[in-house]
Write a structure and sequence with these properties.
The chain is of the alpha/beta class. Helix content is 42%, strand content 24%. The chain has two domains: 115 residues, 3-Layer(aba) Sandwich (Rossmann fold); 126 residues, 2-Layer Sandwich (Hypothetical Protein Tm841, Chain: A,domain 3), CATH 3.30.1180.
């Protein structure tokens, strides 16, 4: 009996990584107007950012359905394997609740569901940890318990380059966005109880990176776990962030980079960079 790790596509991990490690990824749907796409299947990250820049209205996403979870859960259980399923924060999407419905319908005690309270590279980090624990031989129940114990220590910091998409999404009044753009304000976002909030504002991306480095050094980073970076079509900005963090002596064990996908990119826009880690 093996353990299968399942997650949704908002982890934003490249498919080559998940396929090589036997991780099943269930994609969300992305809608631009009346056009529907399957995240990272019929809509690549590169094409998504092209459309995001060209369209006048923001795209929307739809959660994974209970039926989709039921299908993959049934297949894995019939193969004799146990399941650890990691989902996008339930405060952002109903995907986790869909997994709950599917588990209840199957009445199986071999399905362990984890509401990550995370998204993009912070969800990717939890998936990586789950894979490490599985490969170390831990059973599904112990993997799930370990993930639950780490969740309060999971940190995500996202440095934005633009206020435009916060304004379009209604998270920032147009007047505030106008003033912020004049002052070159760069907000830093985090997730609190699974919800996206602004934690700090700086006058440049460089100052944002410096703040992130100071924050990590002040609170401490666990050296037992890897880190994950994310960027919204901005590899050069990510390289600049890594350089600043390294210059401040921030440990960056076994980093993995992901391209931020539609759910979070719709709010942050292009040019954003993010760091996910486990706090001491």
């Amino acid at each position: 009996m093996a353990v299968r790790i399942i997650c949704d596509s908002t982890c934003d991990i490249d498919r080559s990584w998940t396929e090589a490690r036997g991780v099943d990824v269930i994609p969300l749907k992305v809608m631009f107007g009346t056009e529907e796409y399957t995240d990272s299947v019929t809509l690549s990250k590169e094409r998504f950012y092209e459309k995001l820049s060209a369209e006048k209205t923001l795209p929307t996403t739809s959660q994974v359905t209970p039926g989709e979870f039921n299908e993959i859960f049934t297949r894995v259980l019939e193969a004799g394997d146990d399941i650890v399923s990691l989902s996008l924060s339930s405060a952002i999407s109903g995907t986790y609740q869909s997994a709950v419905f599917a588990k209840n319908a199957l009445s199986s005690d071999r399905i362990f569901l984890f509401d990550s309270h995370a998204a993009t590279c912070s969800l990717a980090l939890m998936v990586r940890i789950a894979v490490q624990l599985r490969d170390a031989g831990l059973p599904a129940a112990e993997i799930h318990a370990k993930l639950e114990s780490l969740r309060p220590k999971l940190r995500l910091l996202i440095c934005l380059d633009t206020l435009h998409y916060l304004k379009l999404g209604g998270r920032l009044p147009a007047s505030s966005a106008f003033i912020g753009e004049l002052l070159n304000i760069k907000p830093i976002l985090t997730l609190e109880e699974g919800k996206v909030v602004v934690v700090e504002k700086k006058r440049s991306m460089t100052k944002s990176f410096e703040w992130v480095g100071d924050k990590v050094n002040a609170t401490g980073m666990s050296g037992e776990y890897p880190v994950c970076f994310g960027h919204s079509n901005a590899p050069q900005a990510l390289a600049a962030m890594v350089k600043h963090l390294s210059g401040k002596g921030v440990p960056l064990p076994d980093p993995l980079d992901v391209i931020i996908g539609p759910v979070i990119a719709t709010h942050v826009g292009p040019g954003a960079v993010a760091l996910a880690y486990i706090e001491k």
